[in-house]
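thought: fold this chain, then report.
action: predict
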Amino acid sequence: MKQIAFSVMMLVALAAGAQDKPAAAPEATPKPEAAKEAAKPAPTKSAASPRKAGPRRWNEDARHCLERASNTEVIKCAEEYL
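observation:
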């Protein structure tokens, strides 16, 4: 039984060692586009989110939004409660 366990462990170790490792590609110089993108400030959460800043309304009732005429209007109304 010990010989079987040892054989299995050796096969797993050999299989793991036989896998090709990706060669590390050396970068000669940084690209100017990457430097420009790195210099840009990260967008703030308020700019990325279309919601208004204010108190959270997730515990309030948003069923009145279902009375809107189109699905788009219902979604815009309900987003305030997320």
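thought: worth noting. Helices lie at 2-17, 32-39, 45-48, 71-79.
final: tokens above.
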